[in-house]
Amino acid sequence: MGGVTSSMAAKFAFFPPNPPSYKFVTDEATGLLLLDPFPHRENVDVLKLPTRRGTEIVAVYVRYPMATSTLLYSHGNAADIGQMYELFVELSIHLRVNIMGYDYSGYGQSLGKPSEHNTYADIEAAYKCLEENYGAKQEDIILYGQSVGSGPTLDLAARLPRLRAVVLHSPILSGLRVMYPVKRSYWFDIYKNIDKIPLVKCPVLVIHGTCDEVVDCSHGKQLWELCQEKYEPLWLKGGNHCNLELYPEYLRHLKKFILTVEKSPSRRFNSRRSTDRIEHSRRSTDCFEAPRKSTDRRDKPRKSVDRPEKLKTSEYKFNNIDKLDKFKISFDQIERSRRSVEYHEKSRRSIDLQLEKARKSVDWLDRIRAG
Length: 371
Description:
The chain is of the alpha/beta class. It folds into 2 domains: 2-327, Alpha/Beta hydrolase fold, catalytic domain (Rossmann fold, 3-Layer(aba) Sandwich), CATH 3.40.50.1820; 331-370, no CATH class. It contains 12 helices and 11 strands. A hairpin with a 6-residue loop joins strand 1 and strand 2. Helix 3 crosses helix 4 and helix 11 packs antiparallel against helix 12. The longest helix has 19 residues, at 116-134. The model is unreliable at 1-6, 266-305, 307-317, 319-335, 340-355 and 357-371 (pLDDT under 50). Residues 270-309 are annotated as: Disordered.
């Protein structure tokens, strides 16, 4: 019986687009790997990565000038990196980060067959590429898992103690819990995120739509409760499983989170409000507006998990970004300014004293500007 249930769970878990949304080609003139039909971009690399399980997966790396963080994005079901490509480019621009996205084994033009353990090997291959090919350090990497992608994301995050952060987008408690309201973990279940989330040592942001009919919002709620280092969650009113990127609040909140975790660990949480704010978020009107049904129970036939809606590229332009954003000064710019002042003025004792006081001041940012 257990074997049958495990087989059923595996079949429900994976829906690779058929046919894939892109073709994998090599440019004859340059020898570069390209995704057809997308035009070549100078800041985008297309890669083939070998995995420890003997398969070869396709990945894309989007480079942002002077980025201090790299997002390793594990997409949801019924999607491949061809469908995610424009979103990756837009997120890189607006969040000012490098992004690596990859296709699981059996998805897109990646070889092999989709399985739970293959996805673990797939994300490890992408992470290894970031370290070895792009010089990314563990403490500079943010793991981003969408729906089923929360499985490989949390499996890796639980084994990396110095990660910068984790983002869980419409995450699942486990594969079996999406279909049945079970109260314990069984050996044949897949993606046991509920058991792995307490092992994650870095800040975790959870984003979930309150009207998600594929993965109930209670999954995100419970995972957030189990986090060691909670960050203010985002419960999007009316959001479903496939449209959260279209909400202006999505990008604003995600950007705020990244700016927070990019600060040095010693000051990272000084700029955040007290834990009272986090406690208040549990009672926020953005949470559940009506008593929810029994945990994780589905009343309707289950849809193909994570099937993306056909959205125009223009919908990813995020035109509703807060206009004040353009006036923000990045932490890197402040650090460069401080080092410049210290270098050119280090012989002046009075300036050194002012800088020393400014570092200790609560209003550190304003005093650096004044200096």
